[in-house]
From TrEMBL:
Matches recorded under SUPFAM superfamilies: Phospholipase D/nuclease, Winged helix' DNA-binding domain
Keywords in alphabetical order: Coiled coil
Coiled coil location: 78-105
InterPro entries named in the record: ArsR-like_HTH (IPR011991), TrmB-like (IPR051797), Tscrpt_reg_TrmB_C (IPR021586), Tscrpt_reg_TrmB_N (IPR002831), WH-like_DNA-bd_sf (IPR036388), WH_DNA-bd_sf (IPR036390)
Gene3D superfamilies: Endonuclease Chain A, Winged helix-like DNA-binding domain superfamily/Winged helix DNA-binding domain
Protein's UniProt name: Sugar-specific transcriptional regulator TrmB
Family according to the record: Belongs to the transcriptional regulator TrmB family.
PANTHER family, per the entry: HTH-TYPE TRANSCRIPTIONAL REGULATOR TRMBL2 (PTHR34293)
Domain Transcription regulator TrmB N-terminal: 11-78
Organism for this UniProt entry: Candidatus Nanohalococcus occultus
Length: 281
């Protein structure tokens, strides 16, 4: 039996290169084999076969026998997967430890001082830029939430509420614990009811619904402390094409986006008792 191309492609997804995929699949079919035999079966150059098998052994896919000629034993796929998972976890932990050590070092303090020095030379309105891709957008939004001192105001979509809870629930909980007032506006439906329940732990959540001439804006935005704003595209684009505009302009926040948020808030209602929130007369 020969492994299908689809299966070989899956092995690539978990980090095996072309030669490693071929040799591991061939070795699975034999159980035990030499580098020469595997080289002939897979058309991998013999000079490379030894290095490939050594690499597979390091990754936990192969065991090397102490024999002459040297033989190799295949590790069952499920065990091999667990082996490589352990390696990735250890590598990640090592990197996190290095980052934590660097974060508390004098070097970071020096870099922070350089940043503060540079910011003093720039007008707040010039601190702006565009972001592309949901990963970059979520990363930057998380940074905004971490810097919040008094208020976070978020207007999002039905699916956006699910994304917000999935990607930022922990940061928003921390913000609330630090005394930050968190407000969220979103259409609450059966598809995001669970996210609404979770969001209530760290925010006041209001339901947006089109009524009469009132139309819900097709987009998402977040305001932090009246001086940072991020506005994002709607849900109909692919995550890699998702775009956002970020600015530290207090004029944009206070004069443009805050009034929009307040207007939406006054047209919202409590999802649990359906009592509309209206402006005070």
């Amino acid at each position: 039996m020969v492994a299908s191309q689809e299966t070989l492609d899956k092995l690539e997804d978990i980090g095996l290169n072309m030669y490693e995929r071929k040799i591991y699949a061939a070795l699975l079919g034999r159980g035990v084999s030499t580098a020469g035999e595997l080289s002939e079966m897979t058309n991998v150059p013999r000079s490379r076969a030894y290095d490939v098998l050594e690499s597979l052994a390091e990754k936990g896919f192969v065991v090397i026998k102490s024999s002459k000629p040297m033989e190799y034993v295949s590790i069952p796929p499920n065990e091999a997967i667990e082996n490589i998972k352990k390696q990735h976890k250890q590598e990640l932990q090592d990197k996190l430890n290095k980052l934590e050590g660097f974060k508390s070092s004098e070097a970071v303090q020096e870099l922070e001082e350089l940043y503060d020095q540079g910011v003093e030379l720039v007008e707040p309105s010039e601190m702006s830029g565009s972001l592309k891709g949901s990963h970059q957008i979520n990363q930057h939004m998380g940074t905004m939430f971490q810097k919040a001192e008094s208020a976070i105001k978020i207007a999002t979509t039905e699916e956006g509420l699910n994304d917000l809870v999935e990607n930022h629930a922990d940061l928003l909980k921390e913000a609330k614990a630090d005394g930050v007032n968190v407000q969220i506006l979103a259409p609450v439906t059966d598809s995001n009811r669970s996210s609404f329940s979770n969001a209530k732990e760290f925010a006041e959540v209001r339901h947006l619904q089109e009524t009469g001439e009132f139309k819900i804006p097709n987009g998402r935005f977040a305001i932090v402390d009246d001086d940072m704003t991020m506005s994002m595209t709607h849900d109909e684009v692919h995550s890699t094409q998702d775009t956002a505009f970020w600015t530290r302009s207090d004029h944009m926040s206070k004069e443009t986006m805050e009034p929009v948020f307040d207007m939406l808030w006054h047209h919202s209602e409590d999802p649990e008792n359906n009592k509309p929130e209206r402006p005070e007369k």
